[in-house]
Structure formats: C-alpha cells, structure tokens
Amino acid sequence: MSSPRQHDVLVLGGGNAGLSLAGRLVRDGCRDVAVVEPKDVHHYRPLLSYVASGMATLDDLTRPQDDVVPAGVLRYPARVVGLDPQRSVVRLDDGTELGYGDLAVCPGSEVDWDAVPGSEEAMGTPFAATSYLPELAGRTWEMLSSLTSGRAVFALASWQVPCFPVGLKPLFVAADHWRRTGVLGAIDIELVVQASRLVDDPRAERELRAACTEYGVRVRTSTSVVSIDPTDRTARLRTPHGTDTTHYDALFLAPPHRAPRWVSESGLATTGSGGFVAVDPETLQHVTFPRVWGLGDAAAVDAMPSGGALRRQVPVVAANIQARRKGTPMQHYDGYSLAPITTSRRELLLAEFDRDGRPEPIVAFPDLARPRRSLLLFDRYLQPTIYWRRLLQGKVS
Ligand SMILES: Cc1cc2nc3c(=O)[nH]c(=O)nc-3n(C[C@H](O)[C@H](O)[C@H](O)COP(=O)(O)OP(=O)(O)OC[C@H]3O[C@@H](n4cnc5c(N)ncnc54)[C@H](O)[C@@H]3O)c2cc1C
User: Is 167 touching ligand 1 by the criterion CB < 6 Å?
Assistant: First the structure.
C-alpha cells in the first residue's frame, strides 16, 4: 500500500476559515499548505441576507473557487469522507489519502432539517423560506415582498447557527417595505428567538427592541420551533411556559445547524461538543489530538460562529501551530463575535461581544451599536471587497 502524500499543514474546507488560515500560513512563511475543498464556487455568505432582503443577487456573492484560493496554496477539489487522527490520515472521496504535520478542520456546518420535523417539506411550499441556503435566499424576498396581509413569522434558532441575529435583516427590511407600501398595519409580525436575547450586546439589544416596537413586531425569546405542519401552515413552539402553536402566511427560518457527520465519526467530537470539533475554546487546539486544530462554524468554541469571529480565530490558530512546534506559549481566542443587523432598508447596526455577552467594540467611537446609514453601505458594498481581497487571502490582523 502506498503511503499517503504528506503536507506540512492540511486544511479541511476552503470556506472563510480554511482559505483565510491557508493564506495566513503562507504569508507567515509556511511552504507546504494544502486545502481540501470540493466546491468549484465560493460564496460570500453574509450577502445571502441581502439576497433575502431584495438588496443583492447570488452573482454578487459568488466567485470561482480557484480565483480565490490564496497564491501558494494547493487545492484538492475533493470531499473529505474520513479521517483517522490516530494515524494522521485524511481520506478523500476520490480515494486519495493525505497525511499532515498539522491539521486544521474547518468544513463549516450544515442545515439540520431533521431537528425540526416538517421544516424541509415547508421549504418546498411558497409560504416558507430561509436565507441560510443560496437556492432559497432569493425566494425569501419573493415571499416577503409579495405579502400584503396575514401573519409573518420569523424563527431564529441560536446554538451553533452561523451569525443567527442576521436573520433579523430580512425581517426589518421587509417591515420597512410593508410600511412604505402601506400594508404594515395588515401584517401581524411575530419574532420567535431560541436565545434569551436578540443579540448578546445590551446596547444593540435596546436598539433592536425599539425597532421591533416601531414596526409592531411581537417578540418571543427563549422560544423555539419544534415542528412544522406545512399543510395547515402552523408551527409548534416550545416556550418557557409550555407548548404553543402559531399560524403563518409567511415563515422565515434561521434553521438549526449540525456539523458534518464524519467529524464525530472520526472521533473529533466529544459528548460535550454536540458533534462539533472538540477544541480548547481559547487555544483552538483539539482536546485529544495536539496536531489537530478546529475553527469556524464546525468547531465548538463556546462563542457565536461568524465571519467576524474568524478575524480573531485565524491568527490564533496560525500562531499556535508554530507555538506548539517551538514549545512557546500559545495565543488565546477570547470568544469575540459580531452581528451586523439592518434596522431598515437604509440603516444597520453592528453588535460585537465576547463569549460572556460583554460588549467588545472594535472602536470606542463612534458607537457602532446604533443604526447608521454609513454602516449599511460598508456592510453591503465595502465588506465584500475586503473579504475577497484581504480576509480570504489571510490578510487578517
Ligand atoms: C445567511 C448567512 C448570513 C451570514 N451573515 C454573516 C454576517 O453578516 N457577518 C458575519 O460575520 N458572519 C455571517 N455569517 C457567518 C459566516 O458566513 C460563517 O461564520 C463563515 O462562513 C464560517 O466559515 P467556515 O469556513 O467555518 O464555514 P463555511 O464558510 O461554511 O466553509 C466551509 C467549507 O467547507 C467545505 N466542506 C464541507 N464539507 C466538506 C468536506 N467533507 N470536505 C472538504 N470540504 C468540505 C464547504 O464546501 C465550504 O466551502 C453568515 C452566514 C450565513 C449562512
């Protein structure tokens, strides 16, 4: 049997985390970095919320994968199907086996339709949609913008859902649209949030609650959707006071997510990590296999997954791979994450917080947790350019 081809650092998944890390490692002088990524196109996923709000198209967020892989990084256009961390071997769907000096595991997460029976079937009707899948994001805006009366339910799951508060973007843009077209009074808007707060930043929470009041949104926190009946158009809810049922004419879901199955099958998850890669949430080093690292949406880092969080995680993993090799102290990720949320078609606020729910603004002034026109323009138009040209290339500070 031939021995697996070796790479100094092997990265599983060429999404935001994988390409940013690979680019960073090459910039830091690592000469042999390979990424396994099956998809031939790369999506800048934050723009999906704008597609679902009628403010962007799928073309705006799509680039050919090979155009965005950082220079000096080798890409395997294949899918990981198995991993043996005891032997340090990764198996691809074309039969190739790869070995590694260090391994970064970042295949993201996937929608878990099974967690809410009826949800996948509901997505096949004109009355339900999500921004969390490219093929359904455009349909979200068709559904919301064509509603002129009835009940619109927005349900946001929270644990491990990538940047779940951005599910509020289509809500507020739609409410703004309904107000401008004179139908807001005929639409009953219900917001169902699994978390106890809309967002983990008290300043942003105040602004969002005020926007909800302004549009007449009924907010139910600590409440989750347990099942959906797409025929009756009803969602069954678990609330702090028991179960309840709500009818919908339009249903938006930020659905529960899970890690790819091969992560737990390969022994990278623990009972406490819910199927996600079990790492030390600060050093991002695997709890059992010291040459394995986890970051991004696939890793259990005890913080809300987001692209913003990766701006902190990527430099930590890059530095800690070297620190482990040299036996020097490791860097720590403090759980920083963020959520940019539109409060209308014109304004956006930025919530930033650490894993304990403490505000952690990148700048002290101006207060970015207040809705601003300039922030919306930045998030919609400038940030994608920064993503393609800098963040994906590992130019993260
Ligand atoms: C609708 C939406 C809106 C968002 N809005 C924001 C926002 O406004 N701000 C923000 O900061 N964050 C936002 N996020 C979150 C952000 O996009 C994610 O946190 C980020 O993309 C995570 O990067 P990742 O590399 O961990 O995962 P991904 O970007 O999902 O990349 C994972 C990669 O792994 C690959 N992969 C999967 N399985 C395998 C396999 N078996 N073998 C090899 N490769 C595999 C996939 O093809 C994919 O390319 C949003 C996310 C969504 C879905």
Answer: no
